[in-house]
TrEMBL record:
PANTHER family: GALACTOFURANOSYLTRANSFERASE GLFT2, RHAMNOSYLTRANSFERASE WBBL. This is Mycofactocin system glycosyltransferase. Residues 84-230 form the Glycosyltransferase 2-like domain. SUPFAM superfamilies: Nucleotide-diphospho-sugar transferases. Keywords: Glycosyltransferase, Membrane, Transferase, Transmembrane, Transmembrane helix. Coiled coil: none annotated. It comes from the Bacteria. Pfam families: Glycos_transf_2. One of its GO terms (molecular function) is glycosyltransferase activity. It comes from Hoyosella altamirensis. The chain crosses the membrane at residues 312-338. Belongs to the glycosyltransferase 2 family. Pathway: Cell wall biogenesis; cell wall polysaccharide biosynthesis.
Length: 453
């Protein structure tokens, strides 16, 4: 990791959800973070923007970035001349040609991973594996062959949007950023249910807001088919690991963060890719993603548990849901009051600390709903179904949660261009959860059995 400070002229802007309180001396974020500022630090922020001019402002900007209450707005970044695009390909020459047609003004290395007919293309560097070793090995070959400070990995068939390289490269003005992830969106030709559902809810989606990615936010999905890295950072981390073919990108992100590098997600930079062509392919891909996520989570977790089980209270609240509405309301109120009291003590210097705590508590309660829903409907759905078969009360509660979560998720994605209707969305959402959860359980058991040997 670099130890250089943020460069002069680098700017950060407060997250749109952050509230400035206490005459500018407190920054209150809805995700439970409160930042106390000195008068001097407060004076550095003008119109919600902080520009780096010296060591003090650089230190504050770094602090705000790491806490997630601000996002980078660099004045400039590396140019395309400092970027090499690596394309791993096995047989997919049509997808390769479409991608090459989109790439201009940038060096390109094509790694032919043992295609039956050797690939040759003018104007690019082609490196051939005599036999297929997999996408991870092909990416590593391209990484070693590149000589520029930054390397973009794009798979055949993806379509980078306009100014994708400039948007992603700008983040590397921060010397501690090791990898940047674009937003992955399905190609525009969407006729089937699956393609339209995937357009609303992309399978690999770190989020819908710009953010820094870290193990505490796992499981998040990072597509290896489109990302930009700082070459020296990835080489030091050991490159791509073939043990996680379905989650190559997420694995690399976690290892870079563990090594001290920052990883950013920028939804402004859009790269389009093909969605699964059939229902069976889609279900299989979700199960494979679940298995890979579980393997990654248990590998990087000190406790060896899935992230959803790392906190006890979502599991307790999930049990209360299956016991009945009254129990759930009682348990939720107890948790909300306890959380509110904790937050009020945490923000004593803020104007109206109890009001601030109540607002943050309500948002935390909303987050708890999503976590409990994920537990009941995705990660532990076999136990939920078993309880529903044995108890009418549990069955009623499970159906209510399944429908409510689907409705809330559907309405939260109202800004999507091509939407699927609500009933079909809920149906596919539940199938998505079941397939992913089945794969996650399978992957978790495999890792546990391997550790037990």
């Amino acid at each position: 990791m670099s130890t250089d400070r943020l460069p002069t002229g680098f700017a950060v802007r407060l997250d749109a959800r952050v509230r400035i309180a206490d005459r500018g001396l407190s920054l209150v974020a809805p995700f439970g973070t409160v930042v106390q500022l000195t008068h001097h630090e407060s004076s550095m922020i003008e119109d919600e923007v902080l520009e780096v001019v010296d060591h003090a402002s650089a230190a504050l900007a770094r602090r705000l970035l790491d806490l997630g209450v601000a996002h980078p707005r660099p004045s400039r970044g590396p140019s395309r001349a400092e970027l090499t695009v690596v394309i791993p390909v096995h047989e997919d020459t049509d997808g390769l040609d479409r991608l090459l047609a989109e790439l201009t003004g940038v060096a390109v290395i094509v790694v032919d991973d043992g295609s039956c007919v050797p690939i040759e293309r003018a104007g690019v560097t082609v490196i051939r594996h005599q036999q297929p070793f997999g996408a991870a090995a092909a990416r590593n070959t391209g990484l070693r062959a590149a000589t520029t400070p930054f390397v973009a990995f794009l798979d055949p068939g993806v379509e980078p949007g306009s100014l994708w390289a400039e948007a992603l490269l700008a983040h590397f003005a921060d010397p501690d950023v090791g990898l940047v992830v674009p937003r992955l969106s399905p190609l525009r030709s969407r006729r089937r249910w699956i393609q339209r559902y995937d357009a609303m809810r992309p399978s690999l989606e770190p989020g819908r807001r710009e953010c820094g990615l870290h193990p505490e936010s796992a499981p998040f999905g990072v597509p290896a088919c489109a990302l930009v890295v700082r070459r020296k950072a990835l080489i030091a981390a050991g490159g791509f690991d073939g043990a996680f073919p379905a989650m190559n990108g997420t694995d690399v992100c976690l290892r870079l963060v563990t090594a001290g590098w920052r990883v950013r997600f920028d939804p402004v930079a859009v790269v389009r890719s093909e969605a699964p062509g059939s229902f069976l392919q889609w279900v299989t891909s979700r199960a494979v993603a679940g298995s890979a996520t579980a393997r990654l989570a248990t590998t990087f977790s000190c406790s060896g548990r899935l992230p959803v089980w790392s906190r006890l209270w979502p599991a307790i609240l999930g049990v209360l849901v299956l016991l009945g509405v009254r129990s759930t309301v009682f348990g939720s109120l107890v948790l909300a009051l306890a959380g509110g009291a904790r937050l009020a003590k945490k923000v004593p210097a803020v104007e109206s600390p109890w009001q601030t705590a109540a607002t943050m508590g309500a948002l935390e309660f909303r987050g708890a709903f999503w976590r409990v829903s994920a537990l009941l409907l995705r990660h532990a759905w076999p136990l939920s179904v078993a309880a529903a078969l044995l108890s009418k009360r549990a069955r009623t509660a499970l159906v209510a949660v399944a429908v409510a979560e689907g409705v809330c998720d559907w309405f939260s994605r109202k800004d999507t261009d091509d939407r699927i209707d609500l009933p079909r969305y809920i149906l596919l959402r539940r199938i998505d959860d079941a397939a992913f959860g089945f794969g996650a359980l399978q992957g978790y058991l495999e890792v546990r059995s391997q550790r037990g040997r």
